[in-house]
Amino acid sequence: MVSIKEILSLERFSNFKLINKNADLSREVTSVDITETPDVKDYTSQDTLLLTTAMNFKDNQQSLINFISELASVPVAALGIKLSRFIHTIDKEVIEHADKLGFPLIEIPENWKLGQATHSISTYISKDETEKLYYALEVQQRMNSMLIKEFSVERMLNQLSQFLRLPLVLINPFYKVEVTSNDFKNDQKLLKENLRYFNNVYLPDKDSVNVDFNSRIAVFEVPAFSYFPYYLIVSNLETISYPFSHLAIEQAINSLSFAIYKDSRIRATEQEDVNLLFSSLINTTDGSPISLESNPEFFERYHLKDSSYYKVIICGIDPGSDIENSEYVNERYQLTFEWLQSVLVTLDPNISIFGFGDSNKFAILLQDKHEYYEAYCRHLQQEYKKFFKESLSFGIGNEVSDFTQIHSSFVEALETFDLCKGEGKREFLEIYRPRNFEELLQLLPQDKVRPFVLSTLGELAFPSNTKDKELKKTLQSYMDNQCDITKTSNDIFVHRNTVKYRINKCEEMLRVNVSDPVHSLNIRLALFISKHIQNN
Fold first, then answer.
1. 227 shares its domain with 345
2. What is the mean pLDDT of residues 287-313?
3. Nearest to 430 by CA among 454, 412, 448, 403
4. With 70 as the cut, is the pLDDT of residue 240 above it?
5. 3-state DSSP assignment of residue 220
6. HSE of 369 in the Cβ direction (CA atoms, 13 Å)?
């Protein structure tokens, strides 16, 4: 937009004089109009440069004070007065009042007709907007040309910086510097100033910050992703010159957004090939179909290396966001993936990240021993919440020493993760431990194990009378004491002969030798399961 200062600085309006010294010359002018009536307030648009001969205030400049107050409240950009017609000087009180409001009073020279002044200024404003439009289109054409030529984001940013003659910094959704223009290579002080502004001024109140071209630094959102934008920091705005405009920077941002999104999709497509290889490794128990030793270059391409240590960690996004549409989930998956890579690779370049067909889970493969890997995971949990609305959980498999055993560590990690998730846990960090028999039994439905109990224990499976209950109790103690008569007798406080009688009775009912290893194992299992079923 054109400002009062810009109009007064033009050669064609050089004999327009500013009457009051403390006027705000940054006021924008969008239109020009003429008035000779004092009640124009309700009929004038804001940012209008209003011209008048002040005929109605010829004998009463005190009324001019009220008139200026009304115009300032609209707000009108400025008031131009032709002093040679009805008023030849402006009273001191009027000037002081205008200064108090910062409201510009401009003297229109005698040789200018108000209609002529209106036409000239309107023409300039119209031409100015046209020039700014042409400039914005040129920016768009340059950026689109770079897109067609497949310039990198870094190269596009540098070309844009040169064209605009402004230093630029691109910040990713995780508030880290993605790219800087060449201006910062020899000016780290300027870069630090930009980042301080971004972190200390912009981020704390970004939803209400308006771009101000009169400030030194401004930040623009770059909507490469709908829910996770990038940010463009523009420096030295005080040096911008006509015909730079907000429209020009918007055109540049649109092209940058497309370039960033395109690069992200290319990376995602390349990663899909890596994920397919990983899926083939975890879905076979016979080892890799391709030998690591005979194809080292192939595996290096897929971020895998020969090592005596491998450990798989399943990282999952906890449910709970209010936003769960497909666009958000896809963006979150891609950016979480990139975020995990950026953080973990700084810890160890041999840590690899893979997807395996679940939009909420990732597999992290450690290929070197890390004493503090649990602390790494805790760090990820804390940092993730700074950029995303959800939290992370981890299931950790045991280490394996051979590449062909990665499948085993993955299964352990995934089982641990799914078990904790099934229990309703959130933001957990659990290491795999082998399940005991009771935990494994809980995975089987009762209608599948009950027939085994009945066929093994018969009437003793779920006894209802006192006699059978005593027999089952004695059999249980006999099994627990490794078929030792004396220990069983002491355990249940009955005579040895009573124990012998009851065991013989049990063998008659079950029609097996309870001391036989195979039958003993079945009986022990059946006794355990029957107790578990009764307790549930």
1. no
2. 74
3. 412
4. no
5. strand
6. 6
The string of pLDDT tens digits covering residues 244-281 is 666 778 888 888 899 999 989 888 888 888 888 888 87
Cα gap 404→411, rounded to integer Å: 13
Mean pLDDT of the chain: 85
Tens of pLDDT along 315-341? 999 987 666 688 888 899 999 999 999
Rounded CA separation 31/73 (Å): 17
pLDDT digits (tens, 9 = 90+) for 503-514: 999 999 999 999
| Residue 447, both tokens | 């209608």
The verdict on pTM exceeding 0.70 is no
424 and 304 fall within a common domain: yes
Residue at 269 is within a domain: no
Contacts of 446 (CB under 8 A, 6+ apart): 533, 536
Tell me which of 80, 112, 144 is where a domain ends.
112
More confident residue, 124 or 57: 57
Residue 456 structural domain: 442-532
In contact, 8 and 18? CB cutoff 8 Å? yes
Distances (CA, A) of 159 to 115, 145, 155, 319, 384: 45, 11, 6, 42, 33
* CATH code for the domain of 499: 1.10.10.2840
The rounded distance, in Å, linking the Cα atoms of 520 and 526 is 10
Phi/psi at 87 (5° precision): -120, 135
Which domain-ending residue is among 414, 433, 452? 433
Shared domain for 50 and 90, answered yes or no, is yes
What SS3 state is found at 74?
A: coil
Task: Calculate ∠ Cα 397-398-402, nearest 5°.
Answer: 115
Most confident of 87-91, 216-220, 379-383: 379-383
Q: Are residues 146 and 44 in the same domain?
A: no
CA–CA dist 54, 81 (Å, integer): 7
Q: Exposed, middle or buried, 111 (CB in 10 Å: 0-12/13-18/19+)?
A: exposed
Total structural domains in the chain? 4
Secondary structure of the chain: what % helix, strand, coil (to 5)? 55, 15, 35
Q: Are 97 and 65 in contact (CB under 8 A)?
A: yes
